[in-house]
Amino acid sequence: MDVTRLIIVAVGGQGNLLASKVLGEAARREGVSVRMSEIHGMAQRGGVVESALIFGPAESTVISDGEADILVSFEPLEALRALKKCNAKTVVITNTKPLPPFTAAIGKGVYPEIETIRSHIEANAARLIDFDATALASQAGNVLSVNMVLLGALAATGLLPLSEESVKAAIGETTRREFLETNLKAFDLGRQAVY
Question: Residue 101 carries which DSSP code?
Fold first, then answer.
């Protein structure tokens, strides 16, 4: 089995850690070796949360600059900030709905145009899959299901050594019962966004 390196970035409160937990559980179910690490930063204040997941026979949980095979971003500016982890073969999956940082919201900073973000990513990665995951989460019944929408998109690419069935089963095991139906619907909408 080859090593696959995945970086997931989000703003605090978007569900990055749950998404990582789902993937870890799916890997356990399939007997796939996975190593995980997280950087929480100022997550409670809207700062970045970064998870690194390495599938396969790797010694470290660290993904150095230029080593990511896949980058999944719950927020477009965070995708741009994490681009240094990517290389010319990386696949980037990102939500296009901005969640501007506090400084931009109060006029002390500028949030780049989505087209600017898109062109930077396209110039530095092999493939960009971008869509409004927030709208699909709302369509599923809960705007907070962006993480499940993006997991669905990731599963649809076939880039991870995990089956869609294992990821869905892991969603069932790791999410609260009252959110399960919505989360599974969000996952399916994310899958459909890639097909």
Answer: -
CA gap 173, 160 in Å, rounded: 19
The predicted-structure confidence for 52-69, as pLDDT tens digits, reads as follows 999 999 888 899 999 999
DSSP state at residue 88: T
SS3 70: strand
For residue 61, give the 3-state DSSP assignment.
Answer: coil
Using the Cα atoms of residue 181, residue 186, residue 190 and residue 192 in order, give the sign of their dihedral.
positive
Q: Can you give the pTM of this predicted structure? A: 0.93
Q: How many C-alpha atoms does 153 have within 13 Å on its Cβ side?
A: 29
- Distance from C-alpha of 195 to C-alpha of 186, rounded to nearest angstrom: 15
Q: Which of 8-22, 40-54, 83-97 shows the lowest per-residue confidence on average (mean pLDDT)?
A: 40-54
